[in-house]
Specification:
By secondary structure, this protein is of the alpha/beta class. It contains eight helices and nine strands. Its main location: membrane.
Length: 313
């Protein structure tokens, strides 16, 4: 065999060895990648299962609270946030928030689609409390297509033209409701069915209470609010007797409550590099079998999986 042929044979042999080594390395890499994907999917499944268990626990806590007390206040078990806790490599944290301690924007109108003067005035005072333009109120009325009329004439058919809100982030479609404005409002407002028009005075934040009761001394409201964890209001009459409203005394019964039926759950589950943030709305109603999840969001910016509450009672 000529030297050139021998040299070529050596080159080909080396090339074949290199190709075999590359193929083996590629196979090992693909196998490693596959195992990582399997492990990651298993971790995701575990995180989802822990999240599901957390929601079940929250529902059970709210059911227990309803069975043991006719009043909802901040000193109860549901109101205690769960700090980040680790067990077997899984970190879990969560909070429950009473959404009836906030102003329901859908309650600005009656079921007939007429503006409710009492609640419109309350919302405008809340805007003033937060140093936001009062023009936002008119912009929202126009967006929701709530007409001016006699709100006392109830009993008609539900409004078909009213543009009820389904989620708080729908405010971004309303003129003037910038992300900054929505963030400013968020701790004080919520979006619930139109018929949910009472606010729990045991859980409402002080700025909202000031907007709801302009004739009451702000210092009195702040002092009473600080005591609600232990010395809570047992009913609306107790609330009226302790804060002593003047001009608004008769109207308090039209909007105040010491009970709640809507709660928001926020949870975060982390295992390794996998994180699942979840938000869910829980409705508590003994006539419907206790407590149940109305909608659930998984992940930042996710849309609700289901939306079952009806704004037309």
């Amino acid at each position: 065999m000529k030297k050139s042929q021998k040299g070529m044979a050596v080159v080909i042999a080396l090339l074949l060895v290199a190709l075999a080594a590359s193929a083996s390395a590629l196979m090992l890499w693909q196998q490693h990648l596959w195992w990582r994907q399997v492990e990651e999917e298993q971790t995701r499944a575990q995180v989802r299962e822990v999240t599901r268990a957390g929601i079940t626990w929250a529902v059970a806590v709210l059911q227990y609270n309803r069975m043991t007390s006719p009043v909802v206040y901040p000193g109860q078990l549901w109101a205690q946030p769960m700090p980040e806790t680790e067990a077997q490599g899984v970190k879990v944290s969560g909070t429950l928030t009473d959404m009836q301690g906030r102003f329901n924007l859908n309650a600005l109108g009656t079921r007939e689609g007429v503006q409710d003067p009492l609640r419109v005035a309350q919302f405008r005072r809340l805007l003033a409390q937060l140093h936001l333009p009062l023009s936002l109120s008119n912009a929202l009325m126009n967006h929701m297509q709530l007409r001016v009329g006699d709100a006392s004439q109830e009993g008609g058919p539900p409004a078909l033209s009213a543009n009820w809100l389904e989620r708080l982030d729908m405010l971004r479609w309303v003129t003037g409701f910038t992300p900054e404005v929505i963030a400013r409002l968020e701790p004080y407002v919520t979006v619930l069915p139109q018929s949910v028009n009472r606010i729990n005075v045991n859980t409402a934040p002080v700025p909202l209470l000031k907007a709801l009761m302009p004739d009451v001394d702000p210092g009195m409201l702040e002092a009473q609010s600080r005591q609600r964890v232990v010395n809570y209001f047992v009913n609306v009459a107790d609330f009226i007797n302790r804060v002593k409203p003047d001009a608004e005394r008769d109207r308090v019964k039209d909007w105040a409550s010491t009970d709640s039926g809507w709660f928001r759950l926020e949870s975060r589950v982390k295992q390794g590099r996998i994180v699942l943030a979840t938000r869910a709305m829980v409705k508590v109603d003994p006539s419907e079998g206790g407590a149940r999840v109305i909608w659930r969001q998984d992940g930042v910016g996710a849309l609700p999986r289901q939306e079952t509450h009806d704004n037309n009672p």
